Amino acid sequence: MRLKMIVLAAASALALTPIVQASAEESDSVLMGSPNALQQCSDAAGRAVAGDVSIRRSIGFCDTAVEISKYRRDELAAAYVNRSVLRLAAGQYQGALADSDAAIHIKFILPQAHINRGIALSAEKRNGEAVQAFTDALTLNVSHPEIVYFDRAIAREDNGDMKGAYLDYRQASQLAPTWDTPRQQLARFAVAHTPTS
Amino acid sequence: MKWALLLCVAAAASLPVSFASAAQSSDDDIVILSVKPRSPDVKPIAAAVSPGGQDISKIQTAQASAQVNRR
Prior knowledge:
The structure holds 2 protein chains of 2 kinds.
Chain A: H1 2-25, H2 27-32, H3 37-49, H4 55-68, H5 73-89, H6 93-106, H7 111-123, H8 127-138, H9 145-158, H10 162-175, H11 180-186, E1 189-193
Chain B: H1 2-24, E1 30-35, H2 62-70
């Protein structure tokens, strides 16, 4: 009887071992598949905007967020927007553009999708279209217009429209006086005022 | 005398137009003489959202930069 119990215990231990190992190995994928993927994707995108993210792992969160949000349009659009942020940070501009387009298709009035679309287009040297994307964002209810003016200024500058760029940097600086980057960009411009006839 | 009166009327009529031009011409008058190259560190800022669609983008202001530098 005692021998039978020992054998059973040993068998149980052997049977459990692979499960424990698998759990440890798959902890990342279990985490990725959790309903929290939406929040983790959003958090990662927020960190990416601030320049602090582990890109490879975080895009996985957003892949899951897209997958589990298939039937919830608002959450799906948000997941696409956030994955586009991470793809921009990873230099995957075509993917970022595709995600932004997908978000716009689902929810046109999401200004963040237009902003990220503009950045992807700008990275692809399609600056005219990028300027239009930022202008589209400004027509929507955007939370941080100073960021959109700043982004559009860069696209305009890259497109050779120096005066437009100057006016956008100035607008960004006026909207966010404590933000030093637009002010620093304005200092690069030598400007004169000539009276019109 | 008639000519002088006409001139006065014409001058008076042109005054508001001149003032209006002065008020609206601030941006039109700007001429960009030169632009120094932009630093490669200056990049556009993407926009992230919460799962509910709220904007969670933040800009790094001068104050925030100072806090980062102190760490």
